[in-house]
Write a structure and sequence with these properties.
- By secondary structure, the chain is an alpha/beta fold.
- It has one domain: Undecaprenyl pyrophosphate synthetase, CATH 3.40.1180.10.
- Strands 3-4-2-1-5-6 form a six-stranded parallel beta sheet, sandwiched between helices.
- Helix 5 links the parallel strand 3 and strand 4.
- Helix 1 runs parallel beside helix 8, helix 3 packs parallel to helix 4 and helix 4 packs parallel to helix 5.
- The N and C termini lie far apart (48 Å).
- The chain binds farnesyl diphosphate (FPP).
- Farnesyl diphosphate binds next to helix 2, helix 3 and helix 4.
- The site of farnesyl diphosphate has 18 residues, from helix 2, helix 3 and helix 4.
Amino acid sequence: MIFHLFKSKKNEKLISEIDKNNLPNHVGIIMDGNGRWAKKRGLPRSAGHRVGAANLKTITEFASDMGIRYITAYAFSTENWKRPKEEVDALMELLLEYLRDKKLLEGNQVRVKFIGDRSVLTDEIRREMDTAEEESAHRTRTTLYLAINYGGQQEIVNAVKNIAKKVEAGQINIDDISLDAVGSELYTEIPDVDLIIRPSGEYRLSNFLLWQSAYSEFWFSNINWPDFTKEDFTQAILDYQNRNRRFGGV
Ligand code: FPP
């Protein structure tokens, strides 16, 4: 308890250092290290995912209170189907539970949306996704995008196909293909991501928001996602605010 108080006091001090006028508009989170977190404790990998999913709720609420407008969390990649069936099933079950939890970000101003290819997900999951989107549509402070069956390369291929169809149909000319034209064919009109947080000691993007991360800043740490705290999030924002973003300029 004393430790908890100490930690929150420390976080209060860190939070007070944040410049509210220079917050990242969009933060991406690669929720990595759930499996290792579980293994260290002799638990099944699914237990790590469960604690990781709960932590996403905590961090999203905290980020929303701080004033972050967009968060995208990588919940299931197009490559995650390669995992053992047992783990894939556990992740899908967890997703269903998460979406059915009526307390999902309740009392907060967080809208839930999804990016990724929904076509191969079960009807049940797709229904719950629609419901979560509809029920949270009126919330305006923060949008949480859950990336499910998402792959950045697949997203770009899909956009290219849509554009090719428009050219074929004579709706646009090849010269009309611009950054905006490609951007508007992506899964959803999501703003470019300013900061990507990847815990667990891995230093890669893993097919996450490839188009949208052209000028992202990155923040890595060795902490496994279930152990990632509000204090770590605050530190990531402070570090971001000390970066000099030039977007190719000088
Ligand atoms: C990476 O950790 C994590 C994932 C592949 C899935 C992330 C999913 C969740 C946090 C839960 C589902 C989310 C919601 C919102 C219901 P890893 O399994 O690769 O960990 P490891 O690298 O330590 O093995």
